[in-house]
Amino acid sequence: MGTVETKEEVTFKLNGIDVTVPKGTTVMAAAKREKVAIPHFCWHPGLSVAGVCRFCMVKVKGRPKLEISCNLEATPGMEVDTVSDEVKDSHKWALEFHLANHPLDCPICDQAGECGLQKYYMSVGKYNSQMTEEKVLKPKALDVGDKLVLDTERCILCSRCVRFENEVTKTGGLGIFDRGDRAIIGTYGDEKITHNYQENLVDICPVGAFTSKEFRFKQRVWFLKEKSSICPGCSTGCAVSIHAKPEMETYFRVKPRYDKKVNGHWMCDKGREILSGLDKKERLENSYLQDQDEFSTCERPDMINHLNSLLSRFRGKKISLLVSAQYTNEEYERLFSFFVEKMGVRSIFQWRSKEEKLNDFDGILLRGDRNPNTRGLLDALRKFHILKEVENEFEACLTSSSDLIFAFSPLLSSSFSSFEEDLARLSKLKSCVCLFTTSYQARDYIGFNSLIPLVSFPEKTGHYTNYKGEKRELEGAYPSFIHEGFDVCELVNELDSNIKASLRA
Amino acid sequence: MAEHKILTEFEGIKDSRSLKTYLKHGGYQALAKAFQKKPEEIVALVKESGLRGRGGAGFPTGLKWSFIPAHIKERYLLCNNDEGEPGTFKDRYILELSPHMLIEGMIISAFAIGAHKAYIYTRCEFYEEIKWMNEAIDEAYKAGYLGKNILGSGFDFDLDHYIGAGAYICGEETGLISSLEGKKGQPKVKPPFPAVAGYLGKPTIVNNTETLAVVPWIVNHGASAYKAIGTEKSAGTKLFCISGPVKKPGVYEVPLGYPLKDFIEKEAGGLRDGVELKGVIPGGLSAPVLLPEEVEKVTLDYESMASFKSMLGSGAIIVIPKTQCMVELLKVTLDFYHHESCGQCTPCREGTGWLANIMKTVMQAKAKEDCYDKMYEVASHMEGRTICALSDAAAMPTKAIITKFKSELLNYLRRG
Ligand SMILES: Cc1cc2nc3c(=O)[nH]c(=O)nc-3n(C[C@H](O)[C@H](O)[C@H](O)COP(=O)(O)O)c2cc1C
Ligand code: SF4
Ligand code: SF4
Ligand code: SF4
Ligand code: FES
What we know:
- The complex is a heterodimer of chains A (505) and B (416).
- Chain A is built from 13 helices and 22 strands.
- Helix content of chain A is 25%, strand content 20%.
- Chain A starts with 8 loop residues before the first strand and ends with a helix.
- The longest helix of chain A has 17 residues, at 488-504.
- Chain A folds into three domains: 9-98, Ubiquitin-like (UB roll) (Roll), CATH 3.10.20.740; 100-223, Alpha-Beta Plaits, CATH 3.30.70.20; 280-504, Rossmann fold (3-Layer(aba) Sandwich).
- Chain B is an alpha/beta fold.
- Chain B folds into three domains: 19-227, NADH-ubiquinone oxidoreductase 51kDa subunit (Rossmann fold, 3-Layer(aba) Sandwich), CATH 3.40.50; 237-321, Roll (Ubiquitin-like (UB roll)); 326-414, NADH-ubiquinone oxidoreductase 51kDa subunit, iron-sulphur binding domain (de novo design (two linked rop proteins), Up-down Bundle).
- Chain B is built from 19 helices and ten strands.
- In chain B, the strands form three sheets. In chain B, strands 3-2-1-4 form a four-stranded parallel sheet, with helices on both faces. In chain B, strands 6-5-10-8 form a four-stranded mixed sheet, covered by helices on one side.
- Chain B starts with 18 loop residues before the first helix and ends with a helix.
- At the A-B interface, helix 2 of A face helix 15, helix 16 and helix 17 of B.
- One iron/sulfur cluster is lined by residues 169, 187, 341-345, 348-349, 386-388, 390-391 of chain B.
């Protein structure tokens, strides 16, 4: 907010340089766009203006007092200065006031390394504190929600969290109680925050007042790598970044990225749970072949050979694909161009959770369709002229009397309520079933012909198309620590070239 | 100073609060006159009269009224009867003398700005005044001065009395609005100003009790009659309430521009016997203290006070005797602002606490001599940086006391 978009434009001077913005834009928003850093704590582009931290002071030529830029509309000809000594002095002092009663817990605070107070101390502070008097003490480590811990002493009372509760979730769960330097952030009485958007409070809190129970004390943030991805948790497909420590082969946390048309600034807590499915101990690490009612591991080349020989063996027989809507557009394209166009496969079934309420929507972000790429799958099926006729395609697949089924399981079994039941039923089919999956659980179902481990979404490139047709990229930034894992496109390429070779031979 | 009894007209009159008495003295005739005019004519009249807000800031009243956007029809008028500025007890005097004067002023003002609903916001400590005000409102409703189609004018107007819990910050106009809306009494960030988006997000005019109570007189006697009183830029009379060791502490009405020295000596009867003057806080606790030599020269108007780097404020004159310890005065001053800061703006929240904390170390003989310089610097960075003027109200008297009484403050430390 802070920006009302209209066609009309205004031009004003920001540190002597002409800047043109839509009428109604605040100086703060304009400066952000121009990459002019104005220090701020309470302003957040996704929330209403509070104007309480008084940090973002700028000088407008011809006006007697400094003014906050977050509530200052840029007007034609206005000359704004953000760098003069007077302005800098105001920033330094605003910071000193913020730190006056701050406990300086940095050594034991999760926020250290990404804390507004630390950041600004380096950029606008660097003074010797004059505060030698006793500090106000306030309650620490309060349990205020199933995902949240609150330290009221670290809180700088910017009110972002209060506004989030009022404006985004509209749950009004937080308030600022008492006055002056006794003011304290908290929930009403013994109430707890229970909604599905709690971790956003951790994200927007500029200091370490709100910390995440899940992430608390797990890792120093400066050791984490951060890569862009898309949340596969539902058909909204929020833009996220995934924070990991590759050398530890561990994913640590998920944070939302701003995407105006998809998720704005937020994501839901369900979306943060995707990490549990990426945990190494949850994942299938090797290829498995069934041999006399037992699975035994095999090397990647052996698995490719095995799949090739299956394809030759079942040539002319009924081959089916069972796919969930959790793969990328590129994967569908590659799969269908090979199986449909080369191998003549006509039966492709969508693997869908039984209990999914497809049209549910929580009014904020989370959708009942817990697949990130239902739209992409439908588009691909249409492109390859595969008709979708039946309601329950999983059942249809089971009764299709296919000879060979290539089953591409959901990658996020955690959000797939019927996953285990489905595996059990699939594994009991007479057909020869090759299961492509990321899930370690698959090993419990002995009836599969083979288990092929896949890399998961932060480890592969491609696109998802969300429920309203927005196409977004997976940057595939992390090397998979499932070393034996296959990338679907690469695997199909190999099968394809082997088929070509065998035809030529 | 008996010549201008505008607000104190009912002083010494028996049963002065009753509608009967008010009517006998020409009450509600200004209202009838006002209904003969167009609302914008009344706004123009108040503008011409030179009336400035009596709540502290001295903002031109008619000008404020004209800020209401024409296209929004739902509007509110709020009477700020919170009277929170320490030392101030002049608005309650209007309720004591003639609550109908305020009611009439509010009906006319509401008519002028096009509001059909108004609230008087009074602090709960004014126990008697609340009762008197409520009785007057009841009388006015019964007599048809409030309610539907007042005096056959077609103008409907409802007036309610809201009792606050007694927080200084609820006297700040947007803090008052928040409180009236049922929220925590916290000022709102401006813009938007209340005249554009105030109570319930609608255009709202907040005026001080004294400001509104003088409107009937202006309607009755005309703008130029009012402007003829006082100085060129500070028109009219004002109520001043004087406390401290004077012979006759109390509320007095004088024309603006009246010399402070005369006020103390003639109106308040001079200092009590044997009392020597150390200084005067001229406009409520927030106003910077004046030294005796400044008291000699300053006059009671906005401009003169500003030229002595103080302010007329609410008109609360606090006389300080030689025997008053300035360390203690500074301490109680800062304890007050520390207690009353609403806490949303960082410089005010942290600054008021910090200053009060330093004073604590001074009293405990734990402070170093440079503590006053530190206080001065802290106070300087609290000024002009916040949502409302409470932060300034804490900073200004602090700086003035430190500047003007530095050696006494330092001696206090040296004495241990
Ligand atoms: C901290 C603070 C307290 C205030 N308290 C009062 C008050 O008690 N009564 C009052 O009339 N104005 C008070 N004011 C001034 C109001 O904000 C506002 O300016 C005034 O009510 C406007 O009325 P006027 O234009 O008639 O003066 C206070 C201002 C501040 C900053
Ligand atoms: S808890 Fe964090 S977000 Fe909330 S007011 Fe405090 S500092 Fe701001
Ligand atoms: S709303 Fe959906 S896509 Fe967004 S974070 Fe939650 S589960 Fe992920
Ligand atoms: S200046 Fe002080 S009292 Fe006024 S709004 Fe800010 S914190 Fe509250
Ligand atoms: S960012 Fe502008 S006042 Fe806080």
